[in-house]
## 1
Amino acid sequence: MIMNKQEFLARADLQTQTLELWLEQRWLIPDQTSDEMNFSDMDVARARLIRDLKTDFGVNDAGVDVILHLLDQLHGLRRVLDRLHRDG
Amino acid sequence: MTNPYEILGVAPTASSDDIQKAYRKLAKKWHPDLNPGDKAAEEKFKEVAGAYDLLGDAEKRKRFDNGEIDATGAERPQHQFYRDFATSDHAHPYTNDSGFADFVDADDALAELLRRSERARANRRGQDLHYRLPISFVESIAGAHKRLTLPDGGSLDVTIPPGLEDGQILRLRGKGAAGAGTGGPGDALIEVEVLPDRRFTRDGDNISLELPISLSEAVLGGRIRVPTPSGDVTMTVPKGSNTGTTMRLKGKGAPRRGGGHGDQFVKLKVVLPKSPDSDLEAFVSNWDKGKTFNPREDSAS
């Protein structure tokens, strides 16, 4: 599902200011093909993860940065392994 | 459903602090996004989260202790985790391949396998293509329509939103490399570089500018034209303005994300005429008050 900023804020249960901050940190990269930002279900799930890290686990911003970077790499590796496994 | 106290591993007499601590510890361990390959993690996490929903809320905990509600009363709604998307076959903007970049470069068996598998993927989505787009400072504030010329000779129209900052990435869906078979095209990811401007500097939403004024404008005041990223405006310089005097042009800064604009700060700099002027010299040598004024008095130690 593709949604605009308002729908995204509601789905992800976020404040505008928080979103601006996360966009600035490049923790979220919405689609900007058209003039307004478009968000996907994936962005919602990613926002929830960031919120879990920050509010439930007490991770600070620097920690979130590190975790997201490592997770993105981990998923990159998992994709390759999965591909190898299937094509193997 | 098991006893929530047992799930969190705390005594029924535990304090709410202890319960929160136990929850955080277990939730960190079992969060599905931190265990992308472990199917059991999601179940464990739900159990832990459910137990905490109940025991973390003083009201619900009391009702549970009194037997008014059972442990299932606190089950969480279905929730899709980030990991459900992240390893999907479609490339996405968060993909990061640096974790195995060194394998692909290496000349060994795994690298060959990886290469072969890359080739074998018939319906692969096109790659995301990364570009850099330099824009001027003025364009970054006012927004612009730019055409990016691609290495293959094609071009890409990019709308620069007003107020964009250096290093920001714009994603244009479907503008990346073409996919194979039924795989769609990838995205274009454009990193925008804001070129420095010799007049303006930016600090958050505000813009600063150093503006030279003449001696007579400084002493007598007057109306002067001031460049802003959105065009020249007229500003009144008060009598007796000095080098370093800063004036504010409200709303002439960068657009704010929430709406509105920052301000432009104009720092005045008094500049004497380039060539020595005999009239000015004659005037200053007859100006006794000017000679007795010592601007360094305050700073003398």
Note: Residues 4-85 of chain B form a domain with the Helix Hairpins fold (CATH 1.10.287.110).
## 2
Amino acid sequence: MLAYLWIVPLLPLLGAAINGLFGAKWPNKYVTLTAISSTGLSFLCALEVVREFFKSGQALFHKQYFDWIVIPNLVSGGNLFRAGFDLQMDQLTVVMVLVVTGVGWLIHIYATGYMAHEGGYYRFFSYLNLFMFFMLILVLAANYVLLFVGWEGVGLSSYLLIGFYFLKKSASDAGKKAFIVNRIGDFGFMLGMFLLFRAFHTLDFQTLFDAQHAAGWSVESFGQFGTLTIACLLLFMGATGKSAQLPLYVWLPDAMEGPTPVSALIHAATMVTAGVYVVARSHVLFTHSETALIVVGTVGCATAFFAATIGLVQTDIKKVLAYSTVSQLGYMFLACGVGAFTAGIFHLMTHAFFKALLFLAAGSVIHAMGGEQEMPKMGGLRKKIKWTYATMFIATLAITGIPPLAGFFSKDSILFEAYRREGGRHSLYVVGLLTALLTSFYMFRLIFLTFSGKSRYDEKKVHVHESPGSMLGPLVVLAIFSVIGGWFALPTFFERPDYFANFLAPVFGGAHEVVDAATEAASHQLELILAGVAVGAALIGIAVAYWLYINKPKKADDLATSMKPAYTTLLNKYYIDELYAFLVVRPLLWLSTNVFWKAVDVAGIDGTVNGIAHGTAAIGDGVRHSQSGNTRSYAVWVVAGAIVVLAVIFFWPGAGKVVLGLVR
Amino acid sequence: MVPTNYYVILSAVLFCLGVFAFIFKRNVITIFMSIELMLNAVNLAFVAFSQALGKLDGQVFVLFVIVVAAAEAAVGLGIIILIARNRQTLNVERVDLLKL
């Protein structure tokens, strides 16, 4: 089965094809069956593959299936370049594949309930399966080129699904925005690939990241811009696009126009983590460049804080979660930036559980409210939708970092690594900690506004009802994982082996150095203190949220009025969209309209083409008058022609040969 | 023995007369006759060269030209009769349906 790794991505592709081709005429239950079984089977296959991978005991399984792009070296044999359909399996892939198929399957099940009354049911599941296919290609790919196929494919599926309600202008606009903003990042990603190929003549992970190969590289210290640094920065540019980091994060909040299961699967749990995955996958490159690591860490940290502050004041329940996602992705990059790739991937995994759960629960709330997304129009839902409330509360505790839930362990390990590895400056740690406080505040603000207090909706109009079992089931499963998901990697002060770090050690290898006993004891103590500080920050955030939204509900509005400039700035997301519109979009539009459209296209290209046509027509129009219909004038032309021919023959002796030469 | 030049010059003069008649006359039948005149001018040149060079090729060509001229006369006169019937005129300036 391990050799048949390709079945794992193929099943969702089959599902997408079947639903896309035949689903339109089928009743919903067949579409459901196809979608659920294809992803479910894919998950089972993934489990089996992973089991066999562990049983075989190898560090890396790699198989070439067929050639895709091959440039043979005609001089000395061999290939100058080969990009094949090669899949690989290592511990990092195991984590990603299980998260993608597992969470993806749960979200498919959820979506059958959520989308039951929507038009385009088959189209939705066809796209969603297509997304699963591309995402699996992305994580299973054994070279950058194939990874890029998945990378672009998930971008395409994301575009299709954001614009699912394409009759709504805001939705189709959001889809286009996501696609175009991602294109900027992809541009960098491609340049990075080209640079890597020029430098190393291969884009295969196995050859490129080979330990002996990498041992020859010198570490480029801060400020040095060698090949590795520039390649890493370009790859990271792609990652900022896909993973919604500064400055390319703007598409993700708008992407909430898509149906909620899409937000959960693509824009929270899987696709947006692709950037983190690429950075972790390329860790061999990144660890050789201090500049790139510092950039990754700083961008991640800045994004985490920046997005969290915007999340404080948003009123749309999905927008809060969107900014929270951006912020948590920032955490993952922060971890990668300080070299703690294990912590980053660990947070990726736990985040996939609790953020998917948060989105699905939010979807359940929206479902219960009959489509309402504004939190000021909710309130007091706790009693009415108990299951949704319970699961969402668990997810909120998890993202806030309350022990012993998943988020606590992953966030704690990121903050600990940031503190330990940053070399005494601690600026990343402080901002990270502050972000943790903000996170707990805005998450509990969401909970309190939605579920507590008095209801602020028209109870006669809105019939609040609990969601069907197909939606609650995935919620409960994800809630369980949000609780236990973190137990794989206990902090070292529990005196237990860190299973997750040991598990990923074959991939990240030296990234986790062994320290001697004395520093280890000190580090245990340090970690304990830092964990305490982090939990303290989370509790402060909860307390403030409780005080503002439960204890003194008026206080929040007072605060908003008293700090109006700050509040409106946050509410308008720092005017970043307006800034981009002013700095990029409008100049580009002006340039495109006035230069490329009106000057180059209309005047230049069309002018030349149409000019030739008009010129020809004008000449024809002039010459046409010689066709008078008068036989005798034709005869004059014939005679004139004969005279010319005779004159040439008489006065230019060589003419006959020239004419014959031309004819031949 | 009359020199070949004379025949050739006579042929050229007849041909030019035919051309000018073709261009300046309006009556279709006259134009038709001028065409015949040009053909016969060419025939004269052929025969003259055939005699001068002592070869029969030119005379063979003349026979061909006469045959073609006869055929052309048959078709051409048929057309002229049709034009005269349909338009009650033989003036070529009034037969100009081919103009744009």
Note: Residues 57-87 of chain B form the longest helix (31 residues).
